[in-house]
């Protein structure tokens, strides 16, 4: 007949089990954050954006219209055909926007000072060879 495990073996086994329970509990414990990732973004930046492959670097909304500074953040040069802000107008461009470069696009329209403006931003573009036309959508929102 064999003897049972000695006290050292029991203590070692219990220690391993307790350690595993602590690791498992810690893995599933709800994590808390300061909320800086979400709340640290100014409200105007949350509402002003454009989809890839572009980046909306800056915008101005005033009585003369909307100006957007758009950067090509894609992996290639693009032929930008036009930039439109719904509720304001369209600017035809028809030139290449090289990778990493940005351009200021003025869209002229009459806006009333003090009112809140919100418009869908549409950039119509194609690859540099002009084969496939695509659209990148975004939003511009600000007080005039």
Would you give an account of this structure?
This protein is an alpha+beta fold and 144 residues long. It has a single domain (42-143), classed as Immunoglobulin-like (Sandwich), CATH 2.60.40. Helices cover 21% and strands 46% of the residues. It has 3 helices and 8 strands, in the order αααββββββββ. The strands form 2 sheets. The chain has a 5-stranded antiparallel beta sheet with strand order 1-8-7-4-5. A 3-stranded antiparallel beta sheet has the order 2-3-6, with no helix packed on it. β7 (116-127) and β8 form a beta hairpin. 17% of the residues are buried.
The CATH topology:
Immunoglobulin-like
Label the structural class: alpha+beta
Strand content: over 45%
Tell me the count of domains.
1
């Amino acid at each position: 007949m064999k003897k049972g495990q000695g006290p050292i073996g029991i203590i070692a086994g219990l220690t391993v089990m307790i350690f595993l329970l602590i690791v498992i509990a810690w893995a599933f414990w709800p994590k808390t954050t300061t909320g800086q990732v979400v709340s640290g973004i100014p409200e105007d930046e949350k509402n002003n954006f454009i989809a890839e492959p572009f980046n909306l670097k800056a915008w101005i909304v005033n009585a003369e219209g909307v100006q957007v500074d758009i950067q090509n953040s894609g992996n290639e040069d693009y032929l930008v055909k036009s930039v439109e802000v719904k509720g304001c107008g369209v600017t035809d461009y028809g030139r290449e926007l090289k990778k990493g470069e940005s351009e200021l696009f003025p869209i002229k329209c009459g806006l009333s000072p003090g009112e809140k403006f919100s418009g869908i931003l549409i950039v119509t573009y194609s690859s540099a060879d002009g084969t496939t036309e695509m659209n990148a959508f975004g939003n511009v929102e600000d007080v005039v």
